[in-house]
Amino acid sequence: MTRFRDLIAKAANPTGTVFILLALILVGVFAMNPGFFEGPSLMAFLKQAAPLVILAAGQYFVIVSGNFDLSVGALVGAQVVIAARLIDGEESRTLPVILAMIAFGVAVGLVNGLITTVLKVQSFITTLGMLLVLYGAIRLWTGGAPTGSLSEAFRQAGRFGIEDVPVLGQVPWALLIMIGLGAGAIALMRSRFGRVLMASGDNERAAALSGARVDAARTAAFVLSGLSATVAGILIGGYAGVSAQVGDGLEFTVITAVVLGGVVLGGGRGTVLAAMAGALTIEALFTLFNQMALPATLRPTVQGAILIAAVAYAARQRARPAPAPATPTATATATPS
Amino acid sequence: MTLLAPERDRAGRRPARRLSTTALIYLALVGVLALGGAAVALDGGNLFATANLVDMLTRTSLTGFLAIGMTFVILCRSLDLSVGYVAALSSLVAATTMDGQPGNIPVAIGLVLLVSGLIGAANGAFVTVLGVNPFIATLGTGLILKGYLDTQYKGPAGDVPAVFQQFGYTRIAFIPVSTVVMLVLAAAAVWFLRSTRTGHHMYAVGGDVDVARMSGIRTKGVLLAAHVLCAMFAGVAGLLLAARFGTGSAEAYTNLYELDAIAAVVLGGTLLLGGRGGVAGTVAGVAILAVLDTVFNVMQVDPFAKDVLRGAVIITAVALYARRQLDRTARRPRFTLEGRLR
Amino acid sequence: MSETPLLSMRGIGKSFLGVPVLHGVDLTIEQGEVHALVGENGAGKSTLMKILAGVHSADAGTVELNTGESGGRMVSFTHPLQAQHAGVASVFQEFNLLPELSVAENVHLGREPRRRGLIDRRAMAERTAEVLADLGVEDLAPTAKVGSLSVAHQQITEIAKAVSQGADLICMDEPTAALADAEVELLYRLVRRLKERGVSVLYVSHRLKEIFDLCDRITVLKDGRLVQCADTADITPDDLVTAMVGRRIEAVFPERLEGTAAGEVRLEVRGGGNAWVDGIDLDVRAGEIVGLAGLQGSGRTEIAEAVFGIAPFTRGTVKVDGKPIRITRPRKAIGAGIALVTEDRKAQGLALRQSVRANARMVLDANARVHSRKRLNRIPGLLSSLDLVARGEDQEVRYLSGGNQQKVVVAKWLAAEPGVIVLDEPTRGIDVGAKHKLYSVIRELAAEGLAVLLIASELIEVIGLADRIVVLHDGRIAGELPGGATEQDVMAYATGRRAEESRPA
To answer: Are C110 and B1 in contact (CB < 8 Å)?
Structure first.
């Protein structure tokens, strides 16, 4: 009985809600298309969803520490364009260019973090500025349209996988990378760094008075976000190829995903697993739309409605009075001294 | 809130040499004009040639409308990310309602203001009644509108009669009519913030919502009003879009107008955390961005460089304002550096 | 004085979380009277004032107000606005002002004078100037921005706001706590001016000098009960101190544990000073509990914050375990083995949305220098030895009672095995059971050889627990007393009636 009540409580909790929502949507998808859960189509779905899930994990670190990162969409776009221009079809350049992209992602995160923590510019403005800078700089550099092309090796990660696996068909690299990074993100949140990050987002002052290096942790969160955008850029570039529009508006989809996962803007609440589940939920929803033959153009409308509903629901949950303490505190018979 | 600032002047008057933020931003505007003028001159051009002035002023009007509206919500410590979509929708509502008939113009304008006002009211209700973070609420509204626009309108729609297109193209000497309208509305907004209770209370709501409530201000009503006004200004921007294009354009939102507007507002010295700033500063912020654009245009700098510069300018400006912020020390010192009693 | 008093509160009672803080208190204030409400910290003054201001509502008793034309009527405020409308204004230590607005705008906030529906700024400035002139304040411009004003001028703005609301009674909570000496004069003038205008003032303070300088009558509270209400003329400062501390309630403090002995000096401060405290000499030995006593604002918390590197000493030297060290940040203090249980546990001590476990680990997680697997493993034992009552280590701390929250804070510091522990108001706002548990924990810590620096507003705690009591007055050490000294002696130093020179041998 107690377990049942706990289960209900967990489901009503915004973090738990996302899993139920995900399950419901998947049931809907299954009802429309029973073939969805067959190996190959499920794998294809996960391959497509992987970049958003990885981005959600990166954004989670930033949000849970009390900030935003609006620059990830532009960074994903920039990374794809950088890769195409620098590799320019030469297989041998693949690895050095990937290393350069990682360095660039780290640098962008570092700049975001330092401007926010050291110069005390709100992260909204910092990353908005970074968005504009990246957007302009990349087009400036390429003269408006992306040039060059990606190598086959580069496209492996986003397109291919372990082929001819029984039942599943292809197990995409993207899925494996997603699982690896997701596990890494969960492990990181359980580490000392993750705990300090969480505490900094919840109560910056208490964390600092406990000796936490709040600014350093927050800067590191931006770096992780930059890295996640780099990986997502590699996967999206591999999967979809190069275009000038890659990454446009992606930051808002990512924030939607994270918020849908019950992570609260302002920090200190939510789990990285739920954030990633939020991303999967959005992708599943888009799949459901495809199957219902709804126009893709309606996606944003549903995305927006869900976003508002999810946050309003979470706000209602928070506004409720706290449950009574576990046991009554000592009865106050004595006069207070 | 106690013991706010190190006192500057016992009498409570600020020393004269400390300029107000608004004065500073206008000085910056003059500086940008001077530097831009010099740069263009070195390049062999003249920034102050009529064509360039027209270009500069034309650029101010559209961002101007959006930024004025945005000032209201930011003053209240809120935000509106949906204005670009509201403007696009408004252009369609205007163009389809006018449908080439000059007689429909008043109805179209009324309808645009009604629709945009209602969207603003929805934003305000999400924020005040449902308790949704304004970033999320208005992002959500924007996405909802985007989906509607993308689904409903595959291309330009409607027909704006020539009379109304005058709003987009006519000039008085070198000053475009739209800029005049923008400045008139800016003046009205300044007056509104200064002289009406609702406007004045926006500063209180953004400054400290608890103090405002304790003083008997209906804070939710004020916030709602700010959102409605913001969206209606976006509606006016939509009217201008319709006048310029001659049709309604769903694609207009792709220009990320909301980010431009926010940039102009914070550049104009309005605190993103609310409670400080004003429309006068915003107009200067809009003008600075317009001057930069024109200078780049005249010097034929790659248009994408302007985005880079814009991003850098915004971050720098906010970093500078953060420096200027009052140093809100918690307690008043009792002893001097040498340990003497104060 | 008029026949019927302006205000009469009868039998006011109030409890927080089952802990009674006021027991049937009476308070009457006459028209045009300056009435002092005195008592030690925790006596219930602030609670009574907040009931009057509509911030809290009373559990028992009646409030009759005799303002305006309505005549005597029973009131019960549930919102500060109601109190304001009824003519009761309050000036708290935390000002209710908007720093970005001008004096006139703050004074009229929410009640802006209008002409034809629009704000009449000229009238606003004129009326503000009138109120200020009426109060005898000449050097404050109505157009000045409040954020640029001194504390004294901000306070005047608050008082002007109260006057312009037509308040018949203005309550002031420790109005001089943040003022410099010259500014106190200004406040005196203001209060006398209010009195001349027939406005009553409830003056909450424990500074004897001000009370005798300003007030007509004095109401003394002690442990939430009314002790005495007397005309100022009929009472001497010594009587007043006796009344404030007079009755001693039964508080059982655990005995010193066997084998507790003062050892080496673990924390040594010589000539420590910064902007808030000066000339601090302090030794805390292993196994010793040193109490820091003093009135609100006397510099107790500031010493704790200086020792812990939050607002470091800028003068003097600090040694920990004999080694000189410059503690410039909390991290350094923690590395040197210092722990600080802060005064405000919700704002400074806990991440409320995190679990008991996450909070208890916070210090270890945040500091590589003290992190170890062994210490992490000790945490569950530590929590249970503190008798923590929680649904489990996964429960968010915001759902715990104040006492259990405090135990989590103590646990997070003990997890790091500090050598010096500073406890700033460790028992504030917690229930009696948890208090007694903390008392024994403090004793145990001393027995284990920690140096304990204990700050408490409730004198009885310092007297009952400390081996030595250092009394502060206005940021300096006023005197030192042995543990078990009388409250009168402590108060004598704390109120500045006795200076260090005349201290008993």
So the answer is: no
Nearest CA-CA partner of A236 in A78, A22, A107, A93: A78
d(CA C428, CA C406): 9
The answer on pLDDT for A332 being more than 60 is no
Count of domains observed in chain A:
1
Residue B62 resides in a domain:
yes
Query: Which chain B residue has the Cα nearest residue C141?
Result: B12
Check pLDDT > 60 for residue A211: yes
Side chain identity, residue B179 = T
Q: Please tell me the total count of domains within chain B.
A: 1
Indicate yes or no: CB of B304 within 8 angstroms of CB of A319.
no
Mean pLDDT of A200-217: 95
Neighbours of chain B (3+ CB pairs under 8 A): A, C
Residues of chain A contacting B266 with CB distance shorter than 8 Å: 125
Task: Pick one of 3.30.70.100, 3.40.50.1970, 3.40.50.300, 3.10.20.310 as the CATH number of C265-349+419-502.
Answer: 3.40.50.300
Q: Is residue B214 part of a domain?
A: yes
Q: Is A216 exposed, middle or buried (0-12, 13-18, 19+ CB in 10 A)?
A: middle
pLDDT at A336: 33
Distance from the Cα of A103 to chain C's closest Cα (Å) equals 27
Question: Is the residue at A183 inside a domain?
Answer: yes
- Give tens-digit pLDDT for B39-62: 999 988 888 888 889 889 988 999
Secondary structure letter of residue A321 according to DSSP:
P
What residue ranges do the domains of chain C occupy?
7-245, 265-349+419-502
Please check whether the two domains, C7-245 and C265-349+419-502, share a CATH topology: yes
Tens digit of each residue's pLDDT (9 = 90 or more) over A11-25: 556 677 888 889 999
pLDDT in tens, B129-159: 998 989 999 999 999 999 999 888 888 888 9
* Separation in Å, CA of B275 to nearest CA in chain C: 7
Name which of A23-37, A69-83, A322-336, B45-59 the model is least confident about: A322-336
Partners of C141 on chain B (C-beta within 8 Å) are 11-13
Question: pLDDT digit string (tens) for C19-30?
Answer: 778 888 999 999
Give me the residue from B1, B14, B195 closest to C145, CB to CB. Answer: B14
* Least trusted range by pLDDT, from A46-50, A197-201, B12-16, B180-184: B12-16
Helices (H), ranges, A13-166: 14-32, 39-64, 72-87, 94-117, 123-142, 152-159
The rounded distance, in Å, linking the Cα atoms of A295 and A302 is 11
Task: Indicate whether B151 belongs to any domain.
Answer: yes
**Could A252 and B139 be called an inter-chain contact, meaning their C-beta atoms sit closer than 8 Å?**
yes
**Mean pLDDT of all residues in chain B?**
86
The CATH class of the C7-245 domain is alpha beta
Query: Does any domain span residue A328?
Result: no
The residue range of the domain holding B127 is 21-28+45-324
Q: What is the pLDDT of residue B13?
A: 40
- CB pair distance less than 8 Å for B315 and A129: yes
| Residues of chain B neighbouring C97 (CB-CB closer than 8 A) | 1, 211
Domain that includes residue A108, residue range: 2-318
Which residue in the set C114, C150, C315 is minimally distant from B339, CB to CB?
Answer: C315
Higher pLDDT, C499 or A281: A281
Query: pLDDT (tens digit, 9 = 90+) per residue, C99-122?
Result: 889 999 999 998 899 888 899 999
CB-based contact C81 B214, cutoff 8 Å = yes
Q: How far is B92 from chain A (nearest CA, A)?
A: 17
Separation in Å, CA C212 to CA A237, C177, C207, C208: 80, 16, 9, 6
> Alpha-carbon distance C429 to B18, whole Å?
45
Say which of C112, C279, C315 has its CB closest to residue B200: C112
Residue of A63, A71, A132 to mutate for B, most B C-beta atoms under 10 A: A132
Contact B1 C144 (CB under 8 A): no
Considering only CB atoms, B4 lies closest to which of C81, C109, C147, namely C147
Measure the CA–CA gap between B119 and B125, rounded to whole angstroms.
Answer: 10
For residue A210, give the chain C residue with the closest CA.
C363
Q: Which CATH number is B93's domain given?
A: 1.10.3470
Residue B16 inside a domain? The answer is no
> SS3 for B17?
coil
What is the crossing angle of helices A123-142 and A94-117, to 10°? 150
